[in-house]
Write a structure and sequence with these properties.
Elements lengths: L12 H17 L5 H24 L8
């Protein structure tokens, strides 16, 4: 059975998603309006949404049901 490759992340998920969203927006700025640009902007919005959801789920105010 092959061993699972383990990667230790230095940055948090929120930081990685925010950096990816920023990178995608910068890349989209360089493109003319069109389908590819729209796709990059959509992926950037998805990364930002994922980052916010992850922050919300980790917030100390969120408690499991009793």
């Amino acid at each position: 059975m092959p061993k699972r490759r383990r990667v230790r992340q230095i940055l948090s998920l929120e930081e990685r998603l925010s950096a990816e969203a920023k990178r995608l927006r910068e890349e989209a700025k360089l493109l003319p309006p069109g389908a590819l640009r729209d796709t990059l902007l959509r992926r950037a919005r998805q990364a930002e949404t994922g980052s916010r959801l992850s922050e919300w789920l980790r917030s100390p105010g969120l408690r499991p049901p009793e």
